[in-house]
Structures are given as C-alpha cells and as structure tokens.
What we know:
By secondary structure, the protein is mainly alpha-helical.
Amino acid sequence: IKQSLGFRIDTVFRRRQEEKREEIFCPPLVTLDDSIISALEWLIRMTTDACMDSRNFDSWSFRNTSISVNDSIARFLRDLFAYLDANVVHRLILVYFSRFVSKEGKHWQDKHSKIGLRCSWEVSKLRLTAVTTFVRFLDFVKINKPLMDTWGDWSLRPPTRTNRHLFSDAIEELQSLGMSSFADIDPARKEMVVIPEWKSHWLVELVTDICLSATGHLEQNIQNRAAALLYELFWTSSVYGKVRGSSTVVASLYLSFIPKLLGHVTYISSLHPKSQLRKDMLPCFVFVLQGAPFGLLRALWRNLCKSMEGKAASGHYGGINNVSGGDTSSKDNEKKNGYCDSSEGSPDDSAHAPCILELCGLLNLSLSTFEYEGSETNINASARDLLTQWHSEYLLSPENDKHKSPRYAKQKPNATYSSTSSRKWHSHDAATVIISTCRNIVREYVSMLQVSSKQKSNRNTNGPIASFSESPVSSTRGRKKLPSKKGIKDSIRFSYEDKVVFLRAISSVYLNCLSLRQSDVVLIKTLIASTEIVKVFGIELFLTSLGETLQHWMRVILFHCGARRAKVRVEALDFLALILRLQWDCFGSFTRVRIPLLATMTEVMQRLVATAAARYYRKQKQEKINIQYLSNVKAEASLTPLWRTLTRLHDGSASNNAAFKSALQLLANKMKTLYKSYIAAHALAIVNRNNENPSPRECSADESTFETTRVVMESAEFSKKILGYSQFSAEGKHMVTHNEVVEDAFLAAANVFAATELPLHRVAWLRKLADFHSSRGRNAEEAACRLQIHKTLKRAADLYESLWNSKPFWPWASDASDGVNLSDDGMTGIDDDLLNAERDFEGSKLDTSMHGEANESFRRIFYRVANSVRMRTGDWDVGGTKTLFYGVTFASEYTTVASWIALREIETEMVEEAEHAGQLYLTAGIVESSRYCWGLATQFYSNMFNYARLAYCYRQLANVVASQVPTIDTSNQLELSSPLGRFYRVYFHGGAAHELMGKEFVYRAPVKVKLEEFCRNIKQVLRSILHEKTDIELVLDDGRTQESSKKKNTRRQLGAVQRESMTIKVTPLKPLLSLVQCPRGSAEWFYQQTELEDVTVPAEHSVESMRVGNVRNDRNGVGNKRFRPFSSMASNMHSFGRPTATHKTIRSLNRRSSAAVGGEEIGVCKFSFTQPRDRLRGSRDLLKASSGDVSEKSLRVTELLVSESMPNCVSRQPVAVENRSVFNQSPLEAGVEAVCSWCAVLFRTAVATNGLAVIGDRADQGIGTAALRVISECIHRSRVKEIGLAMLALKTPENAAMSLYEKLSEDEATLNRVKLAKAIVIFMELLHVLIGRNRDILLGVNESRKRRDASSTGSISGRGGVHFGIPPSPGLSFFNEGYNRTFDDYGTLDGGASRTSTMDRTDKAMAIQRELQLSFIKITKALHPVILSAIRSKTPKWMRLCCQDNYFSTGAYKQTRIAIGEELLFFGNPGPSDSSSCHGSQGVLDETNESLEIPRSILKSRDIEHESFAGSETSRAPSVASSRGSRSANSTI
C-alpha cells in the first residue's frame, strides 16, 4: 500500500511539476478521497481486530505473528505522515487505537490462554508497542502543531491584569484537548468510540493518556514500560526543544500533563520513593514545571486554587479522608460577620476534582524521589545492581575531592568515573524547580484573594498580602477599567479554614525539603521561601496552620542552624529570628515557639553528632586505618556551628525593645545551657566506655587534629572543662572527669524545663544526674534528685490534661535516621557492626537506647523512635498514604498531640521515686528526710486506697532509724561533721585557674570523707583537667602548720617560660542549721540547752545583771550596741526561754508541729569557719589566745551563705561575694561551740546504737566497736577537759593590759562560762549514758557465758543454741531483739571456734570498757571543781559520786538517772516523785521505776505482748533480778 501510494503521489508530483514547470524539492502532502480512506479504515479495523483476537495467544507462534502484524500496522501509520496530510493520518491512527477500547471485536475474551498468558495484558503490550513507534517519531513535536506558535509573542510576556485572561482562556483550551476516551484499560471496553476531529496536541494527549493509564496496570512490567515511554517522550522532546531553541513551546505541549498526573497522586504515593515508576514519571512533571511558559503556569495555578474552595470544609484533601480542619472557632466568627463560602453548601460537586492541594502532595512526592542517594564510593558489594542502574541512567565523570586537589590539577589516567556529580546536579535542579514553583503558587494565590470590607481589620487579612494583589506593571487606573466579570472570575473567596489548609499544604513542601538531603542552594531558597509565607500571611495564621508540627519546624531550623555552611546558618537563623520577633509582636512572649524549640534542641544536637560520627568512621574506613570512636572534642567541633549561631542569636538583635532583647537573650542562654549539658553527657559516656574497656588511643597530631582544635576554639571549649588534657592522652588509663562541672551542667539543663511546661524533659535530665550520682556512691545527692523528680511528676500529674507533649519527627525516627543519612557521602559505605557500635555508644551510654524501661524518658529526648509514642488510628489511612499531603507530618499532628505517657504511669513513677529517695536518704544517714520521703509515699497510697503498698511503706518506715555511728576527724579542734555530711570551702587562685580564678565554692562530701582524702580527690581531678606540668599547691586551712611546696630562691631553668601554678585552699566548714530545721541532737540544739535559765550563777553576777549587760561591741571595736552572744550558732537562731515549770524536761523544748506526711526535708545553706584575726601571731587553737585572755575577741568567724540548701542535686555551690559576713569571736565563745559539737557527736552515737538494736543489725559485743572508738576519741582527743580547765578557771592573765582587741565584759564572760559549764555537763552525761549502757550489755554477755559454761557442753537450748542476749538491765530491755542470737547465727559449733572467738571479743570489749571507765572517772575528777565553781548548786550530784574510783564497780552508776538519757529514746516512769531527781537521786529508785522503756512505735509487733514495753521474753522481775545478779561480775570490769 505504501509503494502504491508513493508511486501515485510521485506521478502526480511529476505531472504538476511539468505543468507549472517549477522546481519542487519535496512533494507536497496529499489527501485521499472518501472511498480510499474508508477502505484504509476498514483494513486497519480488520487487521487490528485480528491481532487482538484471544485465540492468537493460545500458541506462541500465533502470538509472535500478531505482534509482527501489529508492528507493521503501527509503522505503516507512522510512515503515512510522509505521504498524506496530517488530518487523514490523524483519523487512521485514532481508528487504530479505538479498536483497543471498543467491544466490536467478535472473538475478544479476557481470559487466560492455553499457554498461561492473560489476554488483556497481551493486548496492553501490543498497544504500548504501537505507542513506542509514535514516541520515537522524529517529527513528533511538529505533527502536534503547538498552539503556542499561533498565539504570538504575548504568551512570553509577563502576565498582567490586562492579559491574564488570555492565559486563562489558553489553559481552558489546552485542557479541552484531552483524549481520555482512547486510554481506558481493556476490561472497560465500550460499544462504540467516536473519532473526534483533528485538533492541536492530539498525538501528545493520546500518548500521555495511554501511558498514564498503563502505569496503573496490575502487571509490573506494563507499568514500568509505560512510565519509561513517558520518560523517553519527555526527554526526546526536551532535547528537540534545546536543539531548535523552542523549549518553552515544546513544554507547552505537555502542560495538560500536570492535571492528568494529579489524578494519579494517590497511586504514586503508595510506591517506594526510589521505585522505577516514580523515577520515570516525576521527572516528566518537573520538566513541565521548568520549561512551560510562566503565564500558563500561573493560569493553571489559579484554576487549581479556584478548585480548592470549600475543600477544607469537606475534610477530603491531602490524601487523607475525614481530615479535621483548622480552627473551628473561626468558622463561627465568619458566620457572625456575614461571610460564608459559596462552595460550602455543595462540597461534593468538586470533591474529587484536582486542586492545588493535590499539586502540593505531588511536589512532596517529587522531593522524596529526587533526593540524593549518596556517593558511589560507599556502595558495598550487595548494592552492585544499584551501581549498574546509576551507570545506565546518569552521565559518568571523574570523582575527585575538590578540597584536596588543586583547581587546575591534571587528571590522573586511572581516575575513577562515577555518577555522583550527575546525581547531585539532578537532585539539585529538581528541588530548585519545585521550590520555585511553590513560591510562584503562593504569589498567585495571594494575588487572587478578594477580601471583603468587613474583614479588613480581621487577622485573616493582616500582613502585606495586598502587596501581591497587583502586578508591578499595572496601575490603579488600569485596575478600575477592568471588567467586573473577569475580576470575579480570577478571584477566589476562601474561608479561614481554606486559608489554613492552603498554608498547611505549602508549608509541608518546605518542611519536607528542609528535612531531606539537599544542596546548600536549595536549603537557602527554601528558607527564604519559608520567610516569605510568614511575612505574607502573618505569624498568627502561620502558627495556626502549622499546629503542633511547629516542633518539627524547630527541629529542621535548629539542624540547619548547626550546618557547616555559613550561608545556610545565616538564613536559618534569620528565619528563626523572624518567627520570634513576630511572635513577640503578636503575643508579647515566646511561649508558643519557645517550648518546642527547647524540647527538640537536644535531639537536634544528637543528630548533628551522629552525622559527624558517621562521616568520621567513613573517612577512617576509606583511609584503611583503625576505626576509633568519635572523641568529645570532635563532637564539640561538630556542634561549634550551632554554638556560633546561638551566640549570634544572643548578641545580634538590633531591636530597641529592651523587653524583647532581654527575653531573646534569656532564650539563647537556655539553649546554650542545653548545649553544654549535651557536651557533658557525651563526655561522660566516653569516660564510662573508656573505663570499662581501657585501650590505647591513637593521638597523632595530624591535620584533622589541628583543624578540630581551631574549630573548637570558636565555641565555649566546654569539653576541656570536663575532661581537660586527659582526653588527649595516648595511654590506656582511666579518664577522670570534673564531676562538679558535669553535675552543674545536668542540673542547669533540668532547670531549663519547668514542671508545668515540659516536666518529662526535666525528669529525664534529673534522672541522668541521679544515675551519675549513683555511679559515684553519692546517696544524698541522688536522693535529692529523686525527690525533685517526685515533685516534678506530682505537679505534672495535677496538670496532666494541659501539658504539652512532643511527637517524633518521622524522617528522624526511622531505623535509618540515626543521623548518618544526612552526610555528604551517604551511609551505604558503613558496616552494620560499626553503625551498631555507634548507636550503642551514642544511645545506651547516653540513656538513649531503644531497650530498657529505666531510660525511656531520656531516650525520647535524644533518640526518637516510632514506638516511643502512641500513633492515632487515623494516621494510618488506606490508599498507601500515612502522612498529610504525602509529606513528613501526620494529619493528627496539626491539631492535637496525644501524650506518650499515661497519667497512671506518671503517678507510678512519682511514688516510686519517693520510695527510692527514702531508701537513699536512709543509706546516707539523713533520717528526717528519709522519713519525709516515705511519708509522701504513704500519703499517696492512703489517698489511692492501696492498702497493700501502704502496709509495705509502713514496714519500711518503721526501719527508718538512725543506725550509722558518726565518723569523726580529730585533726581539727572542732568536730564539724553532721548527719548531712562534711562541708569544705574551696578557694581557687593562681594563674592556671582560668575561669576558676578567685572563685569560692562550698563542697559537700560524705561523712567518711575526711580532709586529706577530699584534698587528694580535688587535686586528682584538677591535675587531669589542667596541663600535666602545671603545679598544683594544696593549702589545708584547718589550723595546721603547712610548709609551702614552692621552692624559694631557685633559679629559673633555661628554656620555655615556666607554667603558672594553681593554689587551692581547702577549709573545713561548720554547717549552721536554721531554727526551723534545727534537728534534735544537733550542735545548735545543744547550744540552745546551754541558754536555758535553770542554772544558778554565782551570787555576784545575777541573771538580771547579765541581761542588762548584754551589750555587743561592733566589729571594729568602737562603740557599744545591744549585746548578743558572738557565736555562729547564736547568730543563726533566737534564744529559747527556759520553761518555768520544773517538770519540763529537755525533750519538751524541741516539740514542734511536723508535716502531715511525717518528717521533713532538712538541709543547710549557711556555713562558717574560724580563723585568727592576726594570722602572723595568732593561732586557731582555742586554748592559745594571743594575750592569754580567753575573753579577748582574737578570732574571726566568717559565715558563708549559698543559694540552695545542701545536700541537694549537686555536690558544690558557688559563694557570692555579697553572701559573706564576718564577725569577731572570743576563744571562750568558740569553746562553747566546740563542746556542743562534741555533744552532738555523742548524741548521734547513742542514737545510732539504739537504731542498730531496733533493726537488729549489730554483731559486735557491747554497743559496738565504732561507738567505743567514738567514746575514746571524745575522752582523749576532743580536748574538752583542757577547754574546761583553761576557760572555767577565774584567773586574770598576766598580759591582760597588752590586749590588741576588744574583750567580753565581765557579765558576758560569766554568762559564757556558765554556758560552757552546762555544755561540759551535757557532754559528761552523754559519756555516762554510753559507758553505762556498754557496761550493762557486757555484764549480760558475761552472765550468759557463765551460765553456758556451767551447763553441759552438748546441751543446746530449745531455740537451737546458747543465747548471749542482753540481760534486761534498766533502760536496755529493748536490746534483747538484737542480741537474742544463737551460736548457729555466727558459725557452727564444731571445734568450738565460734565460741572461742566470741569469748575473745568479749574479753577485749571488757578490757576496753575498763579503760573507758577509768578515763571517765579521771576526767570527772578534773572537771568537777571548775564546773562546781561555775554553776554552783546546779552541778549534777552524780559527778561528785563519780569522783570515786569504785563508781562503776559498786553499781552506783545504776542509781544515777540522766535527763539526757530520755532524749536518747528512753522514757521512764518517774511516778509521783519530783522531777528534781532527773539529774540524780540520793536513794535507790524503786524497781518499777528503774526499768526504762521505749516507745511502741519503733518496736516490732512481735515484741509487744500484753501491753508490755519490755523487749525480752522474760518478765520484768526476773530481768531486774538478773540485772542485780550480774553485779557479781563487777570485779571483771
């Protein structure tokens, strides 16, 4: 047929040429008559139907024949364009393709053939083969005759208000050229297809419709083939346009492809971002966006925006069904104002029509598909197929490192060729086009907004929206002449919800782009575009549209604020600063932005460090060196850009609003605090890993080391403050951290978050700090952290419904989103083992592991994963989509965020923390705070009616007793320990101190840590922080003589200048408890007892005269003021009045109402230390006054005040200069304090022995070895005897006239001597009680041993062994529970080893008791005369009896009743006798009153029988008898 047509055309051509005698180089196209055309149409129908016959696919030969015939028909129709007119060929081609969608075929059945082929699938392949023939036609563009060629040059001009209607009409004309009736799939065949007339773009529309329809086919090969045909068509057309210089005209052919593709968005979203189908189809979409005329695109955007009216009310948009709209309250306001959307009444009419929202979703899909996939050098062996695919799709070029190679370096002959550069540019160009398209959509949308006059003052129209409403080339006069119909046609009437949804769709594109791996240029463009929408729509509409996804914006903005490129950081910071400024102008605070900003900052830092770590490991692997973990300095270097950004945020504001600048600086400081805290957490993880697995570290000073050091110098260099130079050591020794800096950093990070805003973030940092204290055995500090967690969770539980909760960012919460996928070279080159190691290091060591419930809250901050939150059911919609607008956010995140921790979980954690704090306080020896914490738990369980847990808490509360014998430090004259611990003042000075220069801190240490050990720890830490050759001099400022370690008169060695030294002065401090928190038995409490007025003073000095003479000299010694005792204890409390009633005992003085939960949280915030006023001649020894007069104020007392009571969450606190106060003191006043401090030690010792007996945890003989050691130290090394003899004697010093300082008046001196005498009496009474108690216990043990020796060797009592319990001597019957133990409790009876060891311990204890008795009698003999001279008739009578050597052997001590003994948990039954016998009695007490008892509340339930307070199993009478019978052993002790 072609030969026949060709011959006829050639004949006609030659005949015409001969007639006209013209030289025609090419014969013209001809037309055929109707008969020939009809014949050709019939022939095409017949042959096409024959090819599609279902019987052809029953055998392979017929199938191959049908394929050949179909190819022949397609080539025949293509070749007809060379002979016939395009209109004729147009009809024949449409006839051919109509047979694929028509049912006129006789033998068409959609079935499976005999050879297993699906007939409809084979027919689809035949049609795609024909389409391929036309796609590869060279004159494809020419035969479509683009309409743009007929429009003239107006289509290339910028659209204005005068010609914009032309573009709108052109878009309507282009959309009417569709050929969708020829693109249906095979099962949907029609009875008859009408062949349309010829029109422009007919073949383009036909091909694109057929290929788009085939991309949704069930068979994957057909899908990929159709998508590949589209990609080939657009690629060849773009090349044709570039060659001919008509790219815009060519792109206008495919403008209708965009609306067609919008109908396939749901299906495309169900595919993988890197699937071949999406990689073929979406570049076609981007090609149209890039090359189509700008005016046509703007007209298309206007149509799509017009189609969006009412979509927000329908709730069907963004790929999600039943999406809740924006602010529903605005809808009611609009109705009140008389505004209602016209399309709101019938939303179903255009519910399925494509609109601008679907276009935004398509842009999001394109961004994820075009994302850069990484460098080829990181492809492992398992991804060779991907490498082959890249090589077949992209151009190859040499891959060089531009930073290392010179600019004009010669190319190496063996250079590696890869597609890395091509794919980078491919991703960059596509993302640039997408962002530019979004910006143009926003501008076109804003220009169409028509705001009614009633809403001009509303928030919906605020902002510079009007600036985009008019074109730059248009004028006001021109706008007035426009027809009103066209203005109405081009305008839109959006409701407030529609505006919110539109802005939400645009912002989702920007957020998606910022979260992907893009070039710096694209990121900058996106940030600029984001700034535009904030400026155009206003901050209120912007924040409303974002909803709770604002936290995701804060994540990506902060991440880019820490980018390595300065341009990206600047744009990100400008965007953040704009949001903050507009937020302040609109609402007057940063609350809406500040909370998500602070909540996500730690997560951002974690991602930045993980990115740097992956890059660091990849570099080591490429260089084939030993893999080493990322050091803390390198981690800080990776965060240095973020630090510089925060500094610029803090200092770079040019606003004149002082309130705004202050709030902005406060926000920046909080972010810097979190920055330092993360560095501290990272350093702590490195130290823990190094200490667990010490291994040599390579510390070669290569180029990267110097580069890292240079970068870190631009930041705070916080890593050096924690690890110092020890992190650069190549030795595999344990690394030492500056623990106090870590504590301060963690606590500061916790204080950034309030209990009412972000309580769980605060709890996470507090738990981190508590775990750090737990690793070092700091029980008190850990308990304080646990208690703070309890208080935070309690407030969070009260405000549970109103708490803000964070959500994970989906791109960062996936399995592969540990930060490595944001690197420049990708993550494909890293081994899985290395990635797992980094995850373990950055995760579990920082409490961010995905396993373990204890670290769950901290993991939610550092490493957000999908299973750490509760997703809503609506987030997982059908149709293959999970996110709104196919971006990175869920639909529910825009409105509300579900809490990821339930109220019950909060309450459970709250009470568990209180119980844990109670146990830790008890371990630390702080009983009152422990009782307070357990009381919190009991109160909660009682309110919840949880009686099982309530009973458990009461059982634990019953064991909350003081059971720790104090550890004393006799190196200082004053015993400065307390149940709260030991406190030291540390003062730094010297050139090497740097930021510590001149600073003063108060440290808290456990009671067992003495001064020397504390100084060694301080020196060890600072030696690791400072340079190894730095001299550190320790000055122990406790009164001892210490030679300086510096060498005097030494010549400086040649060479470099010697490093400056550092001097650390450590001073023991005395804690000063306040009056409200003054516990029973403390030094302050004993000082109160010395101020009681029941003591008779010498006759020449009456009490009235002393009260009148209470005049205090000023600090300079000039003038007299009203007197008050110059004592640090007296300055910290008011004086108590002595009760007038004689029956008032010492115990009744300290009764005060306690909290409802029981106990109280005690602490101390005031401290003091004593120094001589003249350091050259003076001495801190209380007995060595410079002039010999103890009433001379030769001592200087310095009081320090810290901000928080200690113990608290940190072990040190700074002391401000204004929190220091200094006054002078005499040795006499200091002597009173010294004796009171030793009284407190003895009191705590006595209480601890009682507690050990209550809990039954004492194995030593008597009251215990530790308690006896304390008694011995108090007698021999406390110097109480010397103080009494030196200060109570009324003698005038020889050089009294030569005193340099002011003195106490005679009345003041007399009053202080009385106090000293009373303090010494209390001190002796406490010694008497402890020594007598120990004697009674040993006598009982000795009696039991005698009974055991008298019995047979093999006889064992009915309880399983021989008992050596305590005989029920007076006041000690409750000890039987602790000492009713058999020999089986301590060992076996074979060999008698246990019995012998018990006898040895008893003999040794008796020998010690004998020495203590003799020493006590000796000190009593020495002090009794001076005490008698001071307090006269109120001197205890037992002291006179104790001066006899046989005081203990005769049993006279048992007839003495000590009043202070009642304070030690002993309560007697004095009966009706007068209370004047509290200090002693001449006669023997009655047996019923001789036995002292203890409260029931501290006894175990099995010990209380028949209202008896006795703890032994025997009755009282035998107990007393056995006690008296034990006196026969007096000769032994």
